[in-house]
Amino acid sequence: MKHGSTSPIILLLSRVISPYIMLFGMYVIFHGHYSPGGGFQGGAMLAASIILLRIALEEKVHQMHFNSKLGIPLGALGVLIFFGVGLISLLLGGYFLDYKLLPIPGYTPADLHSFGILFIELGIGLAVMSVLVSIYDNLLEDDDV
Amino acid sequence: MIEKNIPAILPLIFLAAALLIPLLGVWKKAVAYPIAILTVLAAASVSVYGFIYVLLNGTIRYFFGGWAPPIGIEYVYDPLASFVALVINFIALLVLTHGYHAVNIDVKDRQVAYYSVVMLLLAGFNGMIITGDLFNLYVFIEISSLSGYALIAVGEKRAPFAAFRYLIIGTIGASFYLLGIGFLYFMSGTLNMNDLASILPYIKDSPAILVSLILIVIGLGIKMAIFPMHGWLPDSYTYAPTTSSSLIAPIGTKVGAYALLRLVLFVFGVEYFSKDLQVAELLAIFSCGGIIYGSVMAIAQKEMKRMLAYSSIAQIGYIGLGIGLANPLGFIGALLHLINHAFMKACLFLVAGNLRVKTGSSDISQMDDSFRKKYPWTMAAFTVAALSMVGIPPLAGFFSKWYLALGTIENNSWFYLAVILISSLLNAVYFFRILEKVYMRSPEKYIPVDSDIAEIRNEEVKPSMLLPAVALAVGLIVLGIFNVLLVDQIYKMMPAGL
Amino acid sequence: MFELIIGHYDYLFIVVLITIGLYGMIIKKNLVKKVIGMSIFQSAIILFYISSAVKSDATVPILVDELSTAEVITYINPLPHALMLTAIVVGVATVGVAFALLVLIYKRYNTLDEKELIERMK
How far apart are CA B300 and CA A114, in angstroms? Predict the structure, then answer.
């Protein structure tokens, strides 16, 4: 929204709640590989916290928080992280996304098979967050056509 | 190493390009087109290499993430898949070459997003061809459809509504397909196509399998626009920009047809599809309806792109008929027509696009003698494609119809033969109508006597827009003449039990 | 017959949902309602997978020390849920594209009513 809400309750509450939603989103992303959750769910929560601020606050403030221009590039970057993890394992002689081959010292292949998904979850989380925010921004923007 | 990874490279290279274009597009907008064309070029060369490799060394199986099927997702790059992938990437290369100027005209300043979505569309198509997993196929169907909606919507003023209708109908189709594989999965416990093909004979008496076959045929039928499910097609093809319609019209419906062919003939099996049930017969009857309906409607159209759209419905009917015949000749006919029609439609849509660029419209009633002099090569390409469409012998279109006709004779289904013959006549009506205008009708405008007709200067379109159309037309002649070699290869792709 | 209905009430519910979704997509004149119908239709299919994957007395397929991995019977098959997660993402994308198209249509024609829209297109 361009002008934001005038109610102090909404302004204050959205500011207070937003970081906690974000934190919980992070938690969901990082626990995705051994409990319910993962990149998509966590990313959706991160996006929810950003969209909450976009609904409540005025444009100048929420653009400082997360600039609309960042949406598409960050989304592409997120998927590229996913893609890069797959590509590295392909280049190291395995199959695409065979992340037990990732060159991380100190881990056995079995460990990497469990933890490797974390990189992918991070990429997906970033992509989902920025794409959901940019869908919201695009639906609101009214200057084209 | 590259041989092992070919099945993964084909969809993933497009995916990577779809991501790189918006990232680098932030830095410089002009970077979009070079990335796109280089990616398609790379994909086309990889698929040429892959096709030769597969013919010599046999099928490549690719296990994503190192998980062996039936647990993991498997990509199967067999002769059939590699052949269709080759055709599609080759046509995409030609259409994008044409796009160098056409996209400038149609899309203007949004090229970064446009090319990114084109790459996504091609990733979806390549994935649909190569995947050996039912659910993965659904995901790729949706990737290609969603990018297809976007590509159609950037067209003329009415395009968003056409795209919206396509979206609603397409989503119904994809959801039916999803429901169908749900039944299959809960009955068999597997989503891998090969695995499923080996399990199905034991559980084929269950009504759930029957329902799943019907749902899958309906779902993919909507994607490939078989006759009663074709409603979305004419509007979307007409109002889409040239590059979009010449990508989606030749490739999109063909990939849907390929997916249907792959599922009913290879997974469900010929026996179940055509003998135990009458689904094949039904598919053939609907396809015949489509052939007649599409041809008649095409005759009624005044606008070239719309006419081509209706003609697409008729031509998809041929492919459906070939699948529905469920005999070797029908299979050859369907597959040949899949390739020939992809070439013909791409050529015709590119010509329609060229005419739109030059004259502002592709209205048939405005065509006259001067077109032949102003755009000699464009019109030559059009003539070749149109003759091939009608089925004049040395050209490719004749042979697919020939094999289809032989297939109907083998099944003793004289009704289908009559439909094929009648529709060839109808094809002749709507294409010769244009050819007659282009070659015989003198311009209505008054021409002074002293200025000879040679005065009409050659105003041929730019080479980047002309060459792809001419290349496709030459391709049609080559496909027609070397058709025997192709049929020999197709024999190797035949499913078991046909 | 009665037992059949009781035993499969979830499927009947899904059939009703699918019918509502199809009805919304086909009959409703407002384009936003069509999108809502589409969403209901997709949700019905997601529910179909989820309700078919139900297994009584089984738990989430996460490695816990107290349960032995040898007993398959204690775990739910995670695959249908994972598939539906993907289907939900696809559904979100479809609805996103649909709304983007609707915004475009509304900007060009100032209406979302199908009859009115066709009228204005002429």
Answer: 62
